[in-house]
Design brief:
five-stranded parallel sheet; about 35% helix; elongated; Rossmann fold; alpha/beta; 2 domains; binds flavin mononucleotide; about 25% strand
Length: about 400
Amino acid sequence: MRVILGVTGCIAAYKSVVILRLLQKSGFEVFPVMTRHAQEFITPLTLEKLSGNKVICGVFDDRSTEIEHIALARRSDLLLMAPATANLIGKMAHGIADDFLSTLYLSTTTPVVLAPAMNVEMWRHPATQNNLQMLRKRGVVIVEPEPGYLACGEEGEGRLAQPESIVQTALEVLRPVKSLLGKKILVTAGPTIEDIDPVRFISNRSSGKMGYAIAHEAAQRGATVTLITGPTYLPAPSGVRVLPVRSAVEMRDAVLSHFADADVVVMAAAVSDFTPVTVEAHKIKKATASSVLQLHPAPDILEEIGKLKQSQFLVGFAAETQNPLENARLKLREKRLDLVVLNDVSQPGVGFQSDYNQITVISPDGECEDLPLLPKHQVAQLLWDRISKRLFAIAPEGARGA
Ligand SMILES: Cc1cc2nc3c(=O)[nH]c(=O)nc-3n(C[C@H](O)[C@H](O)[C@H](O)COP(=O)(O)O)c2cc1C
């Protein structure tokens, strides 16, 4: 495992040496990155000699053919900012990339762990707290600072967390706690295909990426996962039992035969609402074809399982283009869901086929949480945090990062 250790300009920068050593003891290879101000507190030479890797300090330091912030982001498994200044936190929250470390943050898709260290008033400042809240929502894991005696002579929160707990958090993020161990989870994904004749069909633009990411994340958390999927071009997620189906009827049958046994059901598939009344055995000829295609409603799987629901935790997806909130809330009530995940697919770059998604999670008690636009694997992590919170009625959020 490769971790980038980002060190910023504060007194606690000297503790990065201990953090680096503990990371190495835990089996990580460490790539240190320092801000210009961090070098006022400790020298790059110390981190370079201890890590055995060059310490990167500036965006334009390296004149080789590689674009270093992109190359390093791709090569690593985790970005750990320890200690992180209020300044860095602000830049991360607002997407400012004016030095190597902040540029690296924007370039990485790995989990990010942040261990802040600062004076108590800087910590309590609404700007810092709002920035941290934005980062938490984005899935950044914050290792909260401790109360205690600070370098500025004051007492209060702001002291860097113990290096042992920072490294422990890094380990948990990369080797996640099996929080769903023993749970049986059923996920649906992808489109359905409603045949008209042997060569033609009705379908939709779903790629299956969101449902596959949800199934993969549940398996990572230790659940026994069955993925019922319409036709997609995606590889099977590791550790997941995949049952391929084609039509809405086939998906309904597969869901019904696994429903009773499931603890959680996440219906992320884009099931066709309509299906042709008849499927022709032979290709319909242009000369004899009617200009009207007769359709009837496809099975409403969510409605059926909503009626059958006993102890299952039921999550539905609502892909909407008009009155999204109103329609999603109606779906939540009518289908007896425990959560509904709203996708406003009219927004550019969101939902079907995209690698990114922006969801709103709505619960029966009226809570409605907008999550930011994120890669789908991170959306899946945040969604499982929300489901787990309700399933276990505890708050595992932050136990695992995005
Ligand atoms: C002696 C000294 C100690 C500092 N300690 C902290 C600190 O603990 N936390 C913090 O957020 N800023 C601290 N600062 C302020 C930062 O160094 C300053 O905001 C700087 O711009 C941060 O740059 P960087 O985030 O690029 O490293 C300190 C400054 C000085 C001079």
